[in-house]
Amino acid sequence: MLPQEIIRKKRDGFPLSDSDIQYYIEGIANGSVSESHIAAFCMAVIFKGMSVEETFFLTDQMVKSGDQLNWNDLNGPVVDKHSTGGVGDKVSLMLAPIVAACGIYNPMISGRGLGHTGGTLDKLESIPGYNTTPDNSLFHSVVKNVGCAIIGQTTNLAPADKVIYGVRDVTATVESIPLITASILSKKIAAGLDGLVMDIKMGNGAFAESLDFAKDLGNSIIQVAKQLGMETSALITDMNQPLGDSIGNALEIKEVIDYLKCEKQESRLNEVVLALAAEMQVAAGLVDSTELGHQKAKTVLESGKVAETFEKMVSELGGPKNLLDHKNLYLKPCPIVKPIPSPASGFISQIDTRTVGLAVVELGGGRKKASDVIDHSVGLTDVLGLGEKVEAGQALAYVHAQNEDQVNLAIQTIQNSYTITEGKLETRDVILEYLN
Prior knowledge:
- The protein is of the alpha/beta class.
- It is built from 17 helices and 12 strands.
- It has a 4-stranded mixed β-sheet with strand order 1-4-5-12, with helices on both faces.
- The protein starts with a helix and ends with a strand.
């Protein structure tokens, strides 16, 4: 069998057999399938698509390309959540300790920032000492002792996905529903989960810019996951504005701490977190309805148990034991913090969310290339959202930067990203649809 014949078959619109896909994935490991083959294959999939059966075979073979974790010694359900990424999305950091406090074991394998979207691992690495790459033994131990652990993808967990994704990222082949489905699910199945809840972001700050694309992606993931024996549901959530009050790694950790201590909880962010926590409890079989799951999540959050769980996870993975009470000691501030004045009075009617995210990348809070070193301290706080009334000169946000050049660029970019009109427009709900 030749790799180019598999590419030709898909290019011409024919379905691939299990043996075709098995050869392709095994060839990535043994070197018979090169990066140019992968690029051509992915482009063929972009144009010709894949059936649910093909996507199932691809996912299954990617799972089998590496290790598969086992949680048989845990006395409880193992459930995770995955987000397709957005601007200001720090939901995982709040959600993992909430569901752990509710009785779920949550081994969360997260990623780094991609393009304009922030990465959970980058946020966690702003905490001194936090180990995002523990060995499997430590990872297992923390999940068992704490109930949750948030880490990065281990070297041999769905390794074929790592190679394929690296090629997709630089060949304009990211936005393929079958390839996204296989990439997400191969890691989640390999992680040994009993259930999964998806948070599919939709809007101008998300990879899914239309509701139809988001629904198609959600339904694809649910269908394939169920064929693989993993109960899965999805929420489609709005990303036409940043989520929460802050954007930037250490700044978002500070917002997470304020949230977990119930000192400040931005309403849209809180709604998404509690909705996902409720869905995860239903998936785990711990409650009979999302209403009961919502109430249980709110109760453990208000009790202080969730904050304790987060701090214990941080300390067991190498971070400080007293982060919650000394966040300003460990999360170093920027030397310059300045307001970004609104250029006009009126109501915020539109936000170019992608550009807002890229503004933080320009500050040094994200990567332009894989080798870039992130400045964890930079970013934006007190970010205003859609529908809010502003006066000319009032702060749209505050920029945290290292120098005045960064400040001036951020001010210009953010001002250009906001549309302010005289009349107040209807704002959409943050949770757009439920899929199961």
